Amino acid sequence: GNMTVTVSMTGEADERRLLFRRGAVPGDYLCVSGHLGSSIAGLKVLQREKARYISGKDPEGFRPNLEPYAPALEKHFMPKPRLDLVSIVTDHIRINAMIDISDGLASEVHHICRESGVGAAVYERNLPVVGTTQRIGSEFGDTPTDYALFGGEEYELLFTLSDGEYGKLEGLTDDVSVVGRIVEQEKGITYVREDGTQVPLVAGGWDHFSHAG
């Protein structure tokens, strides 16, 4: 016969340590942990090597070229939740809003803004993208910061906090980057390019972006 299994999870948390998507206020810094874009970069490499294997004349002798891309592949296969930073910020810093980056930075910024009733400006020049990700982007003719905005599956943290609280955070970790500011809702959610031009920040994954102007 047929069998159905239903799983439910419940839990408890200290109210003083709970962090929500709502709570961001104009003037807040918009911060991310770690670096972004590596997971989608690793996936692109895997897809390329799979295509090489399928189209190759000698599948038995095929050896994928993966070693130069190890950091990105590790981020793709084994993203690590940032529990280390969660403990720092909940014990010592007043965070106004927080979310983890699973759908891509752009999408998560929209989540925080919608829940908090605010807008945001994200700065291209501030996006943390490491050398391996930059190199993979150039190999595919992609802009690495697009990986950072729309790649997802990072499990880094996106959070907002006041100017004074950011000053305290700087003394506790060097693994956080300010990628933007929270602004009034009527100013919208925008992306400020390297050249200073400002465009609406599209919320969507990599496939969505590939068709955007």
Give the gist of this structure.
The protein has 213 residues and is α+β, with helices and mostly antiparallel strands. The chain has helices at 38-55, 70-77, 83-92, 105-116, 131-140, 144-150, 163-170, 206-210, and strands at 29-33, 97-100, 119-123, 157-161, 176-183, 189-192, 198-200.
Task: Describe what this molecule looks like in 3D.
The chain has 213 residues and is α+β, with helices and mostly antiparallel strands. Helix content is 37%, strand content 16%. It is built from eight helices and seven strands. The protein has a seven-stranded mixed sheet. β6 and β7 form a beta hairpin. α1 packs across α5. The longest helix has 18 residues. It starts with 28 loop residues before the first strand and ends with a helix. The C terminus is likely disordered.
Radius of gyration: 19 Å
Give the number of helices. Answer: 8
What structural category arises from helix and sheet content?
alpha+beta
Arithmetic mean of pLDDT: 86
Helix content: 25-40%
**Unreliable spans:** 11-18, 206-213
Largest sheet: 7 strands, mixed
The counted number of beta strands is 7
Strand content bin: 15-25%
Order of helices and strands: EHHHEHEHHEHEEEH
Question: What is the terminal-to-terminal distance?
Answer: 52 Å
Strand order of the largest sheet: 2-4-1-5-3-6-7
Element layout with pairings:
Blueprint: E1 29-33, H1 38-55, H2 70-77, H3 83-92, E2 97-100, H4 105-116, E3 119-123, H5 131-140, H6 144-150, E4 157-161, H7 163-170, E5 176-183, E6 189-192, E7 198-200, H8 206-210
Parallel strand pairs: 3-6
Antiparallel strand pairs: 1-4, 1-5, 2-4, 3-5, 6-7
Helix pairs in contact: 1-2, 1-5
